[in-house]
Design brief:
- By secondary structure, this protein is α/β, with parallel strands linked by helices.
- It folds into three domains: 1-134 and 312-442, Rossmann fold; 136-297, PCRA, domain 4; 481-664, Alpha-Beta Complex (Lambda Exonuclease, Chain A), CATH 3.90.320.
- Helix content is 46%, strand content 14%.
- It contains 28 helices and 14 strands.
- The strands form three sheets. Strands 3-8-7-4-6-5 form a six-stranded parallel beta sheet.
- Helix 17 (365-378) links the parallel strand 7 (327-332) and strand 8.
- It is globular.
- Bound molecules: iron/sulfur cluster.
- Iron/sulfur cluster binds at residues 463, 465-466, 469, 670, 672, 676-677, 680, 682-683, 686, 688-689, 691.
């Protein structure tokens, strides 16, 4: 099986579908021929349990990439000298000027193999990023969120309270905290109770005053969140915790791969919280915690955020995580028997062969599967492949080089010629572990197309750091009430036009219902503000309905997605509405911002780069410019219209070019400006903000 898929499905495909036509895909665009040959030699050892043999076809790959170096096996005396040797080679290659750090991958069979290599990279001050098999829930930053939510749902949950109190957010002294936890256990009360009564407890009177002060601040913080929990959605409460405690700001203030990874994992966890809010009627922390427990009990543990391959850092990955990726130089490490192939693990409940429906391969299926995994690792390399091993990984016995190494190299391994670490390296290994060095500024790998929408271009040109927060790190934010209101209005108007376009009769009640369904009552200043916006929205929709019912125009497109490529940039977006009438083609975008006069509407239309981009999109797709573009301000019913000139198109092209260049070059320095920062959703956590406090 390959990650749960039955291998026999492929093997028996032709028997099940004898009419199927076979096409062998043997051209390989990634790896040099010498690497493909080596991998092919290895996989032959799975014969006859291979599709090539069973089907009698030729699956020998032909590499279309020229060049490349013959794969090498490097054998070291100890695991640490292996790690140091790999780090040193990477350093030397980068210093030669022909490589960047991101050209390298160190592939490990399991998470535990990575540690020595990360440490060796640290010693050489080489930036790295690690993608292991660890799931999202095991990440420290996500555990912090889960602990907070569990405590908010049940303050008597002493275990999670302990974790939260000792976390990097509150940093209560672990020794004193343990005494409190012990006291609580002995008296069968919760840790929370102990912390709230700390000053009055004689048995704990000897605890340092500094600890007592911190504990009091912690309790007061918690009480604030507990008071909010019954009123707020899970996402909002969690977001409040991350921002009010300064945790998110701490992550954005210090630029490091580690911090960026944490932010991305938090964003993934927020995605989960959001999914929950979409399927539940009661989005409160207690129900979310029940839901999360069910997910975890069912074995759910989503993958962590993917490493950003454009970051100029060495990628340390498990082979499973490397599937589908490619690197100029690959080191497959710790290649000894017992580590790769990984020892066979017995299933918790062994299924008798007679009960397995699929046809089991002959021979040792575990070794065959490990060999296929080894093959996957080898074929991640484009130009150079190094297979490394060591004799001593600790323990009483020396290790044997993996059988896969000699199978791939086509000759027995030369274990006698071991490489050794220098004495200095051997001593330096005991230095305390550091975080990865900061990545050097890099650029998007050449030849890779970038994808942009109008909003991404606008974000980048407003402030490159904002673009990075939104699109790369995906720093979680709570939706602003204007966004919620705008979406509800948009959904209602779209529903109206879709009905109209399909010839169905639509009533005002239908669109008001669509508005109410999309109107999420979160994020408004207070209940009065929320009711006011809801009322205003419904009044505006009633006016819109009356005006549109009199109109003879039926749009040709509503919510029409578009995409086109311009100078290597894939631009995507959506036309809200396109009309075609006697006066030609009109592209219209709906807006919910407050515009009260025709003069203001005309000014907004004149300045709208978004409309220029839509005109460019229309021209690229339909080979003709639209006759007019317009903004329809739904609140007032005012429509501003204009034509698009060549100058306008030139302006938007310059903007696309500028944004694309900056993004390709990975230039994300902040460009703070008072207005931009005041309206930026990240102003609270951004270290460069120039907005209002
Ligand atoms: S707050 Fe200002 S400087 Fe920071 S990301 Fe937003 S716009 Fe840029």
């Amino acid at each position: 099986r390959w990650r749960g898929a039955a291998y026999s499905n492929v093997m028996n495909f032709m028997e099940a579908y004898p009419q199927a036509r076979q096409i062998s895909l043997i051209r390989n665009y990634r790896s040099a021929q010498v690497i493909l040959d080596c991998a092919y030699r290895l996989i032959q050892n799975n014969n006859p349990e291979r599709f090539e043999v069973k089907a009698g076809i030729n699956k020998r790959l032909t590499g279309l990439q020229g060049g490349g170096a013959a794969p090498q096996h490097l054998h070291f005396d100890t695991h640490s000298s292996e790690a140091d040797g790999v780090a040193r080679m990477i350093k030397e290659k980068v210093q030669s000027g022909d490589y960047r750090y991101r050209d390298f991958a160190i592939l490990v069979r399991s998470n535990s193999d990575a540690q020595s290599f990360l440490q060796a990279l640290n010693m050489q001050a080489i930036p790295w990023q690690f993608s292991g098999n660890q799931g999202l829930y095991s990440r420290q930053e996500v555990k912090l969120c889960i602990s907070f939510l569990r405590v908010a749902a049940n303050i008597a949950d002493s275990m999670n309270l302990y974790y939260l109190a000792s976390s990097e957010v509150y940093r209560l002294d672990p020794a004193s905290l343990s005494l409190c936890a012990h006291y609580a256990r002995r008296r069968n009360i919760s840790l929370y109770e102990v912390l709230t009564r700390l000053v009055a407890l004689e048995d704990l009177a000897g605890l340092p005053d500094a600890f007592k002060d911190k504990a009091a601040a912690f309790v007061s913080d918690l009480e604030k969140f507990l008071a909010r929990a019954p009123r707020e959605s899970t996402g909002r409460l969690l977001y409040g915790f991350l921002t009010d405690t300064g945790y998110l700001k701490g992550l954005t203030s210090v630029q490091s791969i580690e911090n960026e990874t944490k932010i991305q994992n938090l964003a993934k966890f927020f995605g989960l919280v959001q999914e929950f809010s979409l399927v539940t009627k009661e989005d409160r922390v207690a129900t979310f915690v029940n839901y999360l427990d069910l997910l975890i009990d069912a074995g759910d543990d989503p993958p962590t955020a993917e490493a950003d391959l454009d970051t100029d850092a060495v990628n340390v990955l498990t082979i499973h995580k490397a599937k589908g990726l490619e690197f100029r130089v690959v080191f497959m490490v710790s290649l000894v028997q017992g580590r790769f192939p990984w020892p066979r693990r017995r299933q918790p409940i062994e299924l008798p062969d007679e009960l397995i429906r699929e046809v089991l391969p002959a021979g040792d299926s575990h070794i065959q599967e490990e060999r296929r995994l080894f093959y996957v690792g080898m074929t991640r390399a484009k130009e150079e492949l190094y297979l490394t091993s060591a004799a001593d990984y600790g323990g009483s016995r020396l290790k044997k080089v993996s059988q896969f190494v000699s199978e791939a190299m086509g000759k027995p391994c030369e274990e006698a010629s071991k490489q050794k670490a220098s004495a200095l390296e051997a001593i330096s290994r005991f230095a305390p572990p550091q975080e990865s060095a900061a990545p050097a500024a890099g650029s998007v790998a050449s030849g890779r197309q970038i994808h942009l929408s109008y909003y991404q271009i606008d974000d980048y040109l407003t402030c490159p750091l904002k673009y990075k927060y939104v699109n790369i790190l995906r720093v979680p934010i709570m939706e602003h009430h204007t966004v919620i209101y705008g979406r509800a209005m948009h959904d209602a108007v779209t529903k109206y036009f879709l009905f109209k376009k399909s010839g169905k009769k639509v009533e005002l009640g239908d669109i008001l219902e669509a508005f109410r369904q999309s109107f999420d009552p979160q994020g408004f200043l207070d209940i009065k503000h929320q009711e006011e916006r809801s009322r205003k929205g419904q009044e505006a929709l009633a006016r819109f309905f009356a005006a549109e019912e009199k109109s003879k125009t039926t749009p040709v497109f509503i919510e029409k997605d578009f995409s086109f490529t311009w100078e290597g940039v894939r631009i995507t977006g959506r036309f809200d509405r396109v009309d075609q009438g006697p006066e030609g083609t009109l592209i219209m975008d709906f807006k919910t911002s407050e515009i009260k006069t025709q003069k203001d509407a005309d000014k907004r239309v004149k300045e709208s780069l978004q409309l220029d981009l839509y005109a460019l999109a229309y021209q690229s797709i339909f080979r003709v410019l639209p006759d007019k573009v317009a903004l329809y301000f739904l609140e007032s019913g005012i429509i501003g219209t204009r034509q698009v000139s060549d100058d306008d198109l030139g302006k938007i092209k310059d903007n696309i070019r500028m944004a694309a260049e900056g993004i390709r070059e990975q230039r994300f320095a902040a460009t703070p400006a008072y207005m931009a920062c005041t309206y930026c959703a990240y102003s609270q956590i951004c270290p460069s903000s120039a907005g209002r406090e």
